[in-house]
Amino acid sequence: LALGALVLLWLGFTSIHQVGPKEKAIVTTFGKYTRTLTPGLNYTFPWPFQNVAVENVSEFRLEQIPQGTEQRLMLTGDKNLVDLSYVVRWNIKDLKRYKFQLSDPQGTVDEVAGAAMRASVAEESLESICSGAGRADTENAVKTRMQEVLYAYKSGIAIQGVQIKKTDP
After folding, report:
1. What is the pLDDT of residues 133-167, one digit of tens each?
2. pLDDT tens column, 22-32
3. Rounded CA gap, 91 and 130, in Å?
4. Residue 116 near residue 86 (C-beta atoms within 8 A)
5. Residues 88, 113: contact at Cβ < 8 Å?
6. Element (H or E) spanning 104, and its range?
7. Distance CA 123, CA 111 (A)
8. Cα–Cα distance, 14 to 23 (Å, whole number)
9. Nearest CA to 65 among 168, 163, 141, 145?
10. Contact at 8 Å (CB) between 85 and 117?
11. Burial of 112 (0-12, 13-18, 19+ CB in 10 A)
12. Strand partners, 85
């Protein structure tokens, strides 16, 4: 009787999954992708046959660049150096690609943001980057470049926006 109760508890706790309204979940069978679970009550085969990883797909994640006391000096189009601090806002668009296409999605966002920012700053003058209108153009150019690269990587990541926080000529 006790063994039967343990088996029922094992089946209940490892087969029934509640996925929240802002979440999705990936089901893997013996480590291989099987399906994506939508919000609500879902059933799977018990662990260790199937494993479920739940992820909040609607939250906006913020990536502060540079992090800590690190400096990211960039060369402008008119050959001036500028130290930029900026924030990238992103979220998960396709959970399957996000989980399985990149080994380090957050690190990839950081690296792609740095490359896109350097390329966009190199096309602008220092005055343009420091002014309001030029800064907005640079932010839009970075967002577009980032999204193109992340789309090419099939990353499952959507860039929502880039905001330059400060400039120090």
Report:
1. 778 888 999 999 999 999 999 999 999 999 988 65
2. 999 999 999 89
3. 28
4. no
5. yes
6. none
7. 19
8. 18
9. 163
10. no
11. buried
12. 166
